[in-house]
Amino acid sequence: MTDTTKHLLIVEDESALRAAIAAQLTHRGYDVQEAGSGEDAVARLAEFAFDIIITDLRLPGIDGSAVVEAAVGRYPDIIAIVVTGYGTVKDAVEAIKRGAWDFVSKPFQIDELLHALDSAIEQRRLKSENAYLRAQLEERYRFEGIIGKSRPMTRLFQLLETVAPTNSTILITGETGTGKEVVARAIHHNGPRRMHRFVALNCSAIPETLLEAELFGHVRGAFTGASGNRQGRLEQAHKGTLFLDEVGTMSPALQMKLLRVLQEREFERVGDSHTTKVDVRVIAATNSDLGRMVAEGSFREDLFYRLNVIPVHLPPLRDRKDDIPLLVRHFLDKVVAQAVAAQDSTMRSAPRLQLSVSQEAMRRLMAYHWPGNVRQLENAIERAVAFAANRPQIDIGDLPPEIQEARETAVSVALATGVSLPEEGMDLDAFISGIERDLIRRSLERTNGNKGQAARLLGLKRTTLVEKLKRLEKQ
Ligand SMILES: Nc1ncnc2c1ncn2[C@@H]1O[C@H](COP(=O)(O)OP(=O)(O)OP(=O)(O)O)[C@@H](O)[C@H]1O
Ligand SMILES: [Mg+2]
Questions:
Q1: Which one of 2, 76, 230, 288 is least enclosed by Cβ atoms within 10 Å?
Q2: Are 261 and 234 spatial neighbours (Cβ–Cβ below 8 Å)?
Q3: Which ligand has the shortest distance to the CA of 152?
Q4: Nearest atom of ligand 1 to the alpha carbon of 184
Q5: How far apart are the C-alpha atoms of 97 and 58, rounded to whole Å?
Q6: Alpha helices in 63-173 (DSSP H)
Q7: What is the pLDDT of residue 414?
């Protein structure tokens, strides 16, 4: 289903004027949200991919030009129209420099605004503009290749800047696809060991019996098939960084040997009596809860503390969805760059170099819960580019089916709009049961449908949860 309703944000501090414009636009079929300040507008933009923003220039706090800049910076395809007061045409020019499409001067007739909107929508349909965001993206590359300017990512960059120059052991945690390996490499490449090797070893990809030899190396005849002496990954990483991925899957015996490496910086090759000294920085990663494994006795507590000197946690993508537009832009550029590098003639035609994503598709991308995180987003974009064939703009139909079906949920809408009481009033019961339904669904998702665990997550009795489910199903 294609929803052609245009989603519009109106930013105006005079509430009566704002309500009047909103009412008119709603009447003309726009889906309108209102913001009473620049701060409010910026917060809403972080959560929702509006098609159009209409903003007063003179606002207390963050002014209209800055709102426009924030809007266009995040969504290059958004249409921004500014409303100027008497004698502020110079400011309007400034707003246009910052990415506004057009301006209307106060006082205006609603038809003037509608006309400006119609012509902007039409012209925008013909022109796809994304140079602005690309420039901004480049500016944000503090750690090359790691995209993000959400609060959790900004905090992560600060932490990485502090820890990269040191030699401390780091434990990176996070769900699958959140970028643990990218971050490990970035730490290496921004630290004093960058001139030496970054050696990765995925502990879960190698059978237990071979892992020890892989890590420590072996001497000739150490085991059947060990025909010569061989260096392990640890020695290969000498003076550089050893990245131990999925460290939670290591056997107890190996955990002990790794502990010794961390404490003494020495080890023996398998089958060797000679002790080898090594200078490595260790970065470990896991998507399991090592703290819990320690409590359950499946991971050594002393090793956990040795690894967890500096914990770096990567938040799931659903908790930083304001990074999604940037990541989408990044992956689109990557697909195009790869195609150009591969001399793919179909991709070299001009329009393909200007790939963009429709705001509607962007809304679905932002509403989806991304269990596979950034990797899943990257795959979805690659697939969408292939589906879009020669069209320059990716649309809903090009997205994988589960993402096409992603809908704004009551919780995400509440987050996006703030829990505010709209001028026209609201249906409180429907709002509350929407939120209840969302949170119950999320708790069931997180516990793979286990009602007992889901009830516990919500502080409910199991029977209460079951009753609520029955009632919500009827609604
Ligand atoms: N912040 C980011 N910016 C750009 N690309 C990213 C970012 N985070 C992850 N990626 C990309 O997503 C993919 C998955 O990242 P990575 O392999 O680092 O995840 P992971 O946490 O190690 O996952 P797993 O636990 O499944 O091994 C990679 O292609 C990576 O380049
Ligand atoms: Mg990984």
A1: 2
A2: yes
A3: 1
A4: 18
A5: 16
A6: 64-74, 89-97, 110-126, 131-140, 151-163
A7: 63
Distance CA 343, CA 330 (A): 20
Structure tokens at 53: 């923003």
pLDDT in tens, 237-289: 999 999 999 999 999 999 999 999 999 999 999 998 899 999 999 999 999 99
Which residues have CB under 6 Å of ligand 1? 145-148, 174, 176-182, 287, 330, 374-375, 378
**What single-letter amino acid sits at 205?**
A
Q: Give the whole-angstrom CA distance, residue 44 versus residue 278.
A: 52
DSSP-derived letter for residue 270 is B
Residue that is written with structure tokens 């800047």 in the block: 161
Dist. CA 372 → ligand 1 center (Å): 10
Of 327, 375, 376, best ligand 1 pocket probe by most atoms within 8 Å of the beta carbon: 375
Evaluate whether 7 touches 31 at the Cβ level (below 8 Å): yes
Angle CA 199–272–233, to nearest 5: 5
pLDDT in tens, 419-461: 667 667 777 887 787 788 888 888 888 888 899 999 999 999 9
Ligand 1 centroid to Cα of residue 137, in Å, is 18
Task: Please say whether the beta carbons of 247 and 287 come within 8 A.
Answer: no
Instruction: Report the 10 Å Cβ neighbour count for 408.
Output: 14
- The amino acid that residue 421 corresponds to is L
Q: 256 alpha carbon to ligand 1 midpoint, in Å?
A: 29
Provide the strand spans (E) within 295-381.
Answer: 310-314, 356-357
> Is the distance from CB of 99 to CB of 80 less than 8 angstroms?
yes
pTM exceeding the 0.70 threshold for the entire prediction? no
The DSSP 8-state label assigned to residue 461 in this structure reads -
Number of other CB atoms surrounding residue 423 within 10 Å: 13
**Helix, strand, coil content of the chain in percent (nearest 5):** 50, 15, 35
The neighbour count for residue 432, using CB atoms within 10 Å, is 11
Tell me: cis bond preceding 76? Omega within 30 of 0 counts. Answer: no
